[in-house]
Write a structure and sequence with these properties.
The chain is of the alpha/beta class. It has eleven helices and 14 strands. The protein is elongated and about 65 Å long. The two termini are 42 Å apart. The mean pLDDT is 95. Bound molecules: phosphoenolpyruvate (PEP) and manganese (II) ion.
């Protein structure tokens, strides 16, 4: 349920409603970003909803009370009709601009990461991606460089100005990763790790939330709700392919999820064609499809020497292929009324 206040309703009227909501055992949540105050009422309602609508409609300053039928409340377009633009160090995700996040799957060394960071920056990327804590299927595979990798990423940010997107896998490492990263990535395997979601919700950092390979779009939004309800409005959703019976590619890109998400939620949506296809040859066509159908950006793996990459070399683009992808993406962005400018960072 949301309570929409009259424009300019004084703070006392808002406070009186908040107190009443708490008094009946529910939780008031105010969306700070809009001109007129909208109070979301969160929690399990055991009294009749119609009664509750009537009850709150009588408070002074209330323009309207609406029920949100979606299970996700704060993520719902009903609660927040305008698109959310998440801004990280001045770089927008959402809005007119198509944002490109690019970089290696894993941070492997200072030279490797800086080299790739400069390539992707010069070719117009807005963010540098790279994993220091890697969720690998096998415990014997490279697990990432840990804090040393985070230090390299933060040096790459200092050199290029690109904000950093990197994964955090454990609640105990959220503070550490948040000290170095600008965007905390929740990987597909952790999309339903609720303790981790709450923890990144409290971290004060923007979050890139990847869809689990066996999760529905609805589950993704419920996971986003965990982060939002901790008071963190800066959530970016990511479609990265799901497991289906089809095994011609690593995962199946659920391209439908993009327009569906744009319909159901105000949060920005990016597509990861690298993990959704698992094959560099399909990265560009699928990335273009994502931009054409409304994605706010793409996150792409790039490596200067994919044959020797320590993870996901098969799906990594060499710099010349990334350059081609950027040029093609710009054309598709313009064809659908968006822009793909080289990002200007505030350094
Ligand atoms: C990654 O981004 O390198 C990664 C491991 O992604 P996902 O969680 O989508 O598999
Ligand atoms: Mn990867």
């Amino acid at each position: 349920m949301i309570i929409i206040m009259e424009p300019g309703a004084p703070d006392e009227q808002v406070r009186a409603i908040e107190e009443d909501i708490s008094h009946i055992g529910l939780r008031p949540f105010i969306n700070p970003g809009v001109e007129r105050k909208v109070i979301a009422v969160l929690g399990e309602v055991d009294i009749s909803k119609a009664e509750l609508v009537e009850h709150f409609s009588t408070f002074p300053g209330v323009a309207r009370v609406d029920l949100i039928s979606d299970l996700w409340k704060l993520a719902s377009r009903t609660y927040h009709p305008a698109d959310t633009i998440v801004r990280v160090n001045g770089v927008p995700v959402g809005g007119e601009q198509i944002t490109v996040m690019a970089g290696p799957c894993s941070v492997e060394s200072r030279e490797q990461t800086l080299e790739i960071a400069h390539y992707v920056k010069n070719l117009g990327a807005g963010f540098l991606r790279g994993g220091a804590f890697k969720p690998r299927s096998s415990p014997y595979s490279f697990q990432g460089m840990g804090e040393d990798g985070l230090k390299i990423l933060s040096d790459a940010r200092d050199e290029t100005g690109l904000p950093i997107v990197t994964e955090v896998m454990d609640t105990h490492e959220v503070d550490l990763v948040a000290r170095y990263a600008d965007v905390l990535q929740i990987g597909a395997r952790n999309m339903q790790n609720y303790a981790l979601l709450k923890s990144v919700g409290q971290s004060g950092r923007a979050v890139l939330l990847k869809r689990g390979m066996g999760s529905r779009v609805k589950d993704l939004l419920m996971s986003a709700e965990y982060i939002l309800s901790e008071g963190n409005p800066n959530v970016i959703l990511c479609e990265r392919g799901i497991t289906t019976f089809e095994n011609s590619t690593r995962n199946t890109t659920d391209i439908n999820a993009i327009p569906v998400l744009k319909q159901w939620t105000h949060l920005p949506v990016v597509l990861d064609p690298s993990h959704s296809t698992g094959d560099w040859r399909y990265v560009e066509p699928i990335a273009l499809a994502g931009i054409a159908c409304g994605a706010d950006g793409i996150i792409v793996e790039v490596h200067h020497d994919p044959q020797h990459a320590m993870s996901d070399g098969m799906q990594s683009l060499k710099p010349d292929k990334f350059e081609h992808l950027m040029a093609a993406s710009r054309k598709v962005a313009e064809a659908v009324g968006r822009r793909l400018d080289a990002c200007k960072q505030n350094i």
